[in-house]
Amino acid sequence: MLKDVSIRSGLLLAGYGGLLAAAVSFPHSHPWSVSLVLGQLIFSPIKLLVAAFMFSIGFLAYSLFVQDLCKILFLEKNGRPAESHVRLAFVLVAGLSLIHLFFHHWIVALLGGVFALFYGIMDVDLPTIWRNRRIPL
After folding, report:
1. Residue 39 lies in a domain
2. Does residue 137 sit within a domain?
3. What's the distance, CA 114 to chain centroid?
4. How would residue 113 be classed by pLDDT, with cut points 50, 70 and 90?
5. Which of 23, 93, 94, 99 could form a disulfide with 65 if both were Cys (CB 3.0 to 4.6 A apart)?
6. How many Å apart are CA 51 and CA 64, to the nearest integer?
7. How far is the C-alpha of 23 from the C-alpha of 52, rounded, in Å?
8. Which of 41, 72, 90, 86 is nearest to 135 (CA)?
9. Is 90 a residue whose pLDDT tops 70?
10. SS3 of 64, please?
11. Closest CA to 85 of 130, 127, 135, 122
């Protein structure tokens, strides 16, 4: 149980930190244009590459919480209600952290949330889990 909490805490920090770092690193010009992106790519490619990498880490970490929510909603309980309560608590905290990020950097948070939602739903593999009648970590 303690291992599960520490892993999920690390995932939550990685997701929030990744999306926050990406939001700070992406260009902040209001008239976003192709020339701005090309200028950023030519003059500071490492900054844009790190921002894209951190964004990927962020939405992949949040997609695991989407998978947990799908498993909680669509699968039967397997006799371990404490594990389900821990997962639900972390899903709620992940949702609140994404909402907090939305108020500060709404474009990055919206894109990260949408990508996490789609990837989490695609990767959950509910039919296999339903056949085995267990909820893996």
Report:
1. yes
2. no
3. 9
4. very high
5. 94
6. 20
7. 10
8. 72
9. yes
10. helix
11. 135
Q: What is the total count of domains within the chain?
A: 1
Position 37 in a domain: yes
Structural domain for 81, as ranges: 2-132
Bigger pLDDT: 60 vs 126: 60
Write the DSSP assignment of 54-81 as a string of letters: HHHHHHHHHHHHHHHHHHHHHS---S-H
Measured CA to CA, the distance from residue 14 to residue 17 in angstroms comes to 5
Quick one: pLDDT at residue 129?
63
Greatest pairwise CA separation for the chain in angstroms: 57
Structure token pair of residue 28: 């902040």
Tell me how far apart the alpha carbons of residues 14 and 57 are, in angstroms, rounded to a whole number.
7
pTM for this prediction:
0.78
Report if residue 101 sits inside a domain: yes
**Residue 133 gets which letter from DSSP?**
T
Residues 1-19, mean pLDDT to the nearest whole number: 84
Identity of residue 56: S
Neighbours of 90 (CB within 10 A): 21
The structure tokens 């990260």 sit at 112
